[in-house]
Every structure is written in C-alpha cells, then in structure tokens.
Amino acid sequence: KIDRVFLIGTIAISLALSKSLNVGIGGVSFDYREYSDGFELDSESSSYSDIGLIKISYNSILKDKNQKKSSLSFIGSYAEGDSEYEGYLQNLKTGELTPYKSSSDNRVVNLQIRYILEYDANSYSAGVFASGGYRDWARDLKGIYGYKERYYWPYFQAGIMGHWYEKGFFTGFDIAYQRAINPRMHAYLQNRFDFDLGTTYGLNLVVPIGYKYKNGLSIGVNYEYDAWNIDHSNVVDGFIEPDSKTKNKSIYLNIGYEF
Q1: pLDDT, tens digit, for every residue of 26-78?
Q2: What is the DSSP letter of 56?
Q3: Is the pTM of the predicted complex or chain greater than 0.85?
Q4: What does the pLDDT read at residue 217?
Q5: 123 near 131, Cβ under 8 Å?
Q6: What separation in angstroms does the CA of 179 have from each of 143, 148, 183, 226, 230?
Q7: Residue 17 pLDDT > 50
Q8: Would you tell me how many other CB atoms lie within 10 Å of the CB of residue 196?
Q9: Please, which residues bridge with residue 252 across strands?
C-alpha cells in the first residue's frame, strides 16, 4: 500500500541523514464527531489502551553556528485499534431516529518532513518550523450496518517551539497550525463513493517531559494533541459527508539517542 511505502521510504532516508533517533510507544484517545446544523450525528471514541501507537523520528543537523541551528526531521507514526461508535439509525419511511452503538477498526498513518530554525542556548532553545505531511485514516465500522471509510490528505504546518533544560531534565512545547491540501474521503458501500471534503484545518501540540543522560540517551513521556476541523463535502449521488471534528490525544513513552 502507498502509505506503507511512504513510511518505509521516510525511515530509510532518515537513517542516511540522522543525527538523533527517537522511538515512541503508547496509545491514542480518539474523539471524532460528525455534525449537521449543530446536531451531533455520530461519534467515535476510545481510551488510550484501545488504540496502540508507534512513532519514529530522525533528526539531521544541517547547520550549527553561534547558537543558531537548522535541522531537518523525518517523522512517521502508525496507530491501530478499536473505537466505540455511537450514532443513529433512520427509518426511511417515517424519518424516526433510533440510537445505535457499535465499534470500529481504525488505522491512522501520519508521515511528515519538518524544517527547523532554532536558537539554542545552554538552558533553553526557541525556534520556528515548517512541515509537509500526509495523513491517512481508515475507519471500518463493524456490525450488520457497518461499512468502510477512508479519509486522507497531504497537509502543511507552520509552528513555534520552546524547550527548557535543567540538570538533565527537560520539557517544552511544539505547537503548529495545520491545513490540509485537497482533502478526500472514500466511502465503501455497495459501490465506492468519492467525496471532496471542504476546508480542513487544525492544531497540533506536543509537550515532552523527560531526562537526558550525558551519553546522549534520553527517556521521557510525550503528550500530543492533534485536532482537525473538517467542512462538509460535495454531494455525490445524493450523499454528503457532513461537518466533522477530530480531537485525538496521545501519550507515549519516548526514548531518544543522539549519535
């Protein structure tokens, strides 16, 4: 599949350029909701233990002079697991809505290349970054009324970062505005329906807390918040993909090493 090829390619390129390596393992708390005229149509939710996450990043220092540093990062993540679905079934004759619960299999691939400009002092660093990425979420609703959906888009980010260091301990934040480019959605019913989604934008925040040893090894815990606002799609054969919001939260153990 194309997303796995991109993931393998990103890791292979990163190995050739890498200055530091980070591997994170944890879980994702899903929060996805669809709306129509302010009314919540359905939702997907999970606890951190329901959806597993692995995240790998490599960073290559391009220039480091007079405390001013530029670098390039290659980031890939993969999440997979079940979420709880809550929605409604509609009687086509009367229009009556009946609450309906089920579950969904989920798979989320996220690939990213990031360019960073940073001022690096002894006790802190601050900088800006720009990223280009690709996000792909496959959603397989279970049960007799189940069907498959796939949401995917390239995107860009523009963000700021700040990190603080004290006797090996570190914390900080990376925060970015993100916007999709030509977001699409496929729904697999009796036939495949292809939707062009509306304006899709959001926010990404990462907060690390950890300790770095003198030998270059670091260990910590990262919190990540990834949000997307998705405007409704065009109409395809009488069907429309409604407005939706994604607010996924991740917590993962992060182990790093500087070469």
Answers
A1: 999 999 999 988 889 899 999 999 999 999 999 988 888 888 889 999 999 99
A2: E
A3: yes
A4: 95
A5: no
A6: 33, 24, 10, 12, 10
A7: no
A8: 12
A9: 26, 222
Residue 170 in tokens:
């570190």
- Rounded to the nearest 10°, the torsion over CA 61, 113, 226, 103 is -130
Per-residue pLDDT, 16: 46
Extract the tokens encoding 208: 């690390």
Q: In whole angstroms, give the CA distance from residue 205 to residue 159.
A: 9
Report residue 259's pLDDT band, with 50, 70 and 90 as the boundaries: confident
Q: How many residues does the chain have?
A: 259
CB atoms within 10 A of CB 136: 17
**What's the CA gap between 110 and 147, in Å, rounded?**
23
Query: Which has the closest alpha carbon to 23: 70, 68, 58, 60?
Result: 58
Tokens of 162: 């700040």
Type and span of the H or E element at 8: helix 2-17
Q: Which two tokens stand for residue 9?
A: 């390619």
Q: How many angstroms separate the CA atoms of 73 and 19, rounded?
A: 10
Cα angle: 66, vertex 71, 72; to 5 degrees: 175
Q: Residue 69 CB: number of other CB atoms within 10 A? A: 17
Q: Which of 147, 152, 153 shows the shortest CA–CA distance to 105? A: 147
